[in-house]
Design goal:
By secondary structure, the chain is mainly alpha-helical. 73% of the residues lie in helices and 0% in strands.
Length: 146
């Protein structure tokens, strides 16, 4: 096994934490902005996504503080506001958000691979979660045409 690059790992985990916290705000916003006949199930979906993003941020923070001298960030990632709140727009923005999260977890995996089995498994699990979210969003988008 190679030595774990703690500094890089903490940096990536902080970026993940900031991004997941931005997801809390993003998905909470979406849950408030949804209108139309599918409002109720979509509000529930976005609230669940916000809760899950908070859990993911907390998990990343726990890993950061578990690593030597790790200090979790107090920031959140920038959140782009399109001011387009049609369901299709919200779902497309959500898919973009999930793709970025997926890439962050892949970056973490590349950094910890062959250095920490625990962190590798964490990254792989999170990659699986983000891939599943992307699949669900793609399915939801099928019924919306431009």
């Amino acid at each position: 096994m190679k030595p774990l690059d703690i500094e890089s790992t903490i940096s990536i985990l902080n970026t993940i934490m900031e991004y997941e916290l931005a997801g809390v705000v993003r998905y909470t916003h979406y849950s408030l902005m949804v209108t139309g006949p599918n409002r109720i199930p979509l509000v529930d979906f976005f609230k669940a996504q916000a809760t899950e993003s908070l859990t993911h941020a907390q998990q990343a923070g726990e890993l950061i503080t578990g690593l030597h001298e790790g200090h979790p960030s107090l920031k959140i990632a920038p959140i782009k506001e399109s001011y387009h709140h049609a369901i299709r727009d919200i779902l497309e923005e959500s898919l973009d958000h999930e793709k970025t999260a997926l890439n962050l977890y892949k970056e973490l995996l590349a950094t910890v691979q062959d250095a920490s089995i625990y962190l590798e498994e964490y990254a792989r699990t999170m990659i699986g979660n983000e891939e599943m979210h992307s699949l669900e969003l793609r399915k939801m988008l099928r019924d919306y045409s431009k």
